[in-house]
Every structure is written in structure tokens, then in C-alpha cells.
Specification:
126 residues; mainly alpha; 2 strands; single chain; two-stranded parallel ribbon; Rossmann fold; flat; 5 helices
Length: 126
Amino acid sequence: MTCDWQGWRRDAWSLRHLVEDLVSHVDQVILLTVFPVAEPDLLRSVVWSDEVQQSIDLLNRSLSQTQWPSTVRVVDCDSALLALGGKAFMDTLHLTESGYDALNTLIEPLLAPLPAATATPNVREA
């Protein structure tokens, strides 16, 4: 796969460092791969580049091949979303309810064994 845009390397580096930092503060990290993009609509297709999906594929491959600590789980979102065909995406970038349902089905089993959060959100009173 040839991709002239090399930003995916920087993104992979940034995600690796973010996860390394998270691992030192939490018990488990669940890292979702970057969602595939749907076919761009006519207006967006004028400025759209095929390198967007290529760079996502390269980034996801890098994340999958990284030797993560045992407390890090990488979840491949592509299979669940692509299985729905065009029904997973509202537009090029946004998921439909069916898309979110597919992700929930994929992720919920990973969340069930984790302890419930004990922190309370910091909410300002109006």
C-alpha cells in the first residue's frame, strides 16, 4: 500500500505515547482502531483523497502490530462496521445508530469485567 501522506506515522507515535502514559495511571486501556470512512458524497468527493482510508489502514495496522502491555486491548472496529455495509455511516465520517449498536456489541463484553468507576465527574453548579 502506497500512501504519500505520512501523517499516520506521527499519529501512531502519538497514540503509542498516550497509551503508555495512560497505562501508568489506570488498570486497563481499551484502544479502538480508527473507524473506516464511508464513500464521500458528491460535494466532498471533489476534495477527498483516497489516501485518507489508506492512512487509516496503515495507522490501524501499526496499532495492531504494536507490542502493548497486557493491560492494553486493541479493538478492531472495521469488521463490525464494514459488516453493516452502508448502514453503519450517516455520512462519510459519522455513525448511524446501527453503527453505534455494532460498536457497543463489540465493546460491552470488554467493559463488563472492569470495576465500576468510583470517581465523580467535576460538574459546576449553575
